[in-house]
Amino acid sequence: MAYSLTGKLVALIGGSGFFGSHVAQELLARGARLRLGSRHPEQAYRLRPLANLGQIQFVRCDIRDAKSMAAMLAGADAAVNLVGAFSGNLDAIQGSGAGRVAAIAADAGCTSFVHVSAIGADAQSSLAYQRSKGHGEQAVRETFANATILRPSILFGEEDNFLNMFGRLIARLPMLPVFAPQAPLQPLYVDDAAQAVVAALEDPYRHGGRTYEIAGPERVTMMELNRRIADAQARERHFLPLSDGMGRTIASLSGWLPGVPISSDQYAMLAQGNVISGDHPGLEALGITPRPMTLFLDRWMTRYRRYGRFTESEA
């Protein structure tokens, strides 16, 4: 049975980042009262003008600290865990840490709990990131059985660090090497992902206890993505596809190409691709029709064109 979030207190854990800001805006638009928690909540102060008086609260907390999480979740009607990392103590952050938060949310009486994991989460994986994500899902299930787990693909948006990273590189360099050029990707628009979080919160009876893989409608390879971005910038660029051996060597020895830091584990995950497996329901089961990257790319890449919006007329 679905219910309105209007006036409900939703605790958004890890809400100061890119994804968190979009989830926060969606919750505020639905009339929820928002408690946004982060180690650096000041990074989310830009959201203040979007809230009504008293609708948003900022809390400093750390997923590794049970006391701060108990204060964060006290009195909350629902909670969302967005915390994740590629380095550091991954178990404490997104493994056992996720289970700790879910247990505290259950004790606090939360009606619904959404845990954001990742495509490829697997407790048996040889890769630390995927393994810790898999352990986190197991820990959440053990402590909050009715939690909804979302596994999003790579998120894109106007202010992301994904399309914009490639956009900057393509604007500056006449030739670019491409890691894992044939790796398939299924990028997901960040606002569609935010709607998925809210849909799960609004109907815990229907979506609770389930795992969803959520991704965009378009599948592109890494090489195709680079070419699309170059086309959107109206630039001619040469792309050098790196062999798997070369890519692995660069990632293991230097972990870097111009403007693109990448670890060995990150390269291995990239080479696997980032697309849904089909083993779990997707966005459609949450009532959401995903929007393709094609709708936005030309507009967002205007800033990287040589003459901005006047590029075509100048040419």
Notes on the protein architecture:
By secondary structure, the chain is an alpha/beta fold. The protein has helices at residues 18-29, 66-73, 90-94, 96-107, 128-143, 163-172, 190-202, 204-207, 222-232, 244-253, 264-272, 297-300, 311-314; strands at residues 9-13, 33-38, 56-60, 78-81, 112-116, 148-152, 155-156, 175-178, 184-185, 188-189, 211-214, 220-221, 238-241, 256-257, 260-261. The strands form five sheets. The chain has a seven-stranded parallel sheet with strand order 3-2-1-4-5-6-11, with helices on both faces. Strands 7-10 form a two-stranded parallel ribbon. The radius of gyration is 20 Å and the shape is globular.
Topology, element by element:
Elements: E1 9-13, H1 18-29, E2 33-38, E3 56-60, H2 66-73, E4 78-81, H3 90-94, H4 96-107, E5 112-116, H5 128-143, E6 148-152, E7 155-156, H6 163-172, E8 175-178, E9 184-185, E10 188-189, H7 190-202, H8 204-207, E11 211-214, E12 220-221, H9 222-232, E13 238-241, H10 244-253, E14 256-257, E15 260-261, H11 264-272, H12 297-300, H13 311-314
Parallel strand pairs: 1-2, 1-4, 2-3, 4-5, 5-6, 6-11, 7-10, 8-13
Antiparallel strand pairs: 9-12, 14-15
Helix pairs in contact: 1-7, 2-4, 4-5, 10-11
Helicity, as a percent range:
25-40%
Averaged pLDDT = 94
Biggest beta sheet attributes: 7 strands, parallel
Dominant shape: globular
> Biggest sheet, strands in spatial order?
3-2-1-4-5-6-11
Residue runs with pLDDT of under 50 for 5 or more positions: none
Number of helices: 13
Order of helices and strands: EHEEHEHHEHEEHEEEHHEEHEHEEHHH
Which CATH architecture of the largest domain is right?
Answer: 3-Layer(aba) Sandwich
What is the CATH topology classification name of the largest domain? Rossmann fold
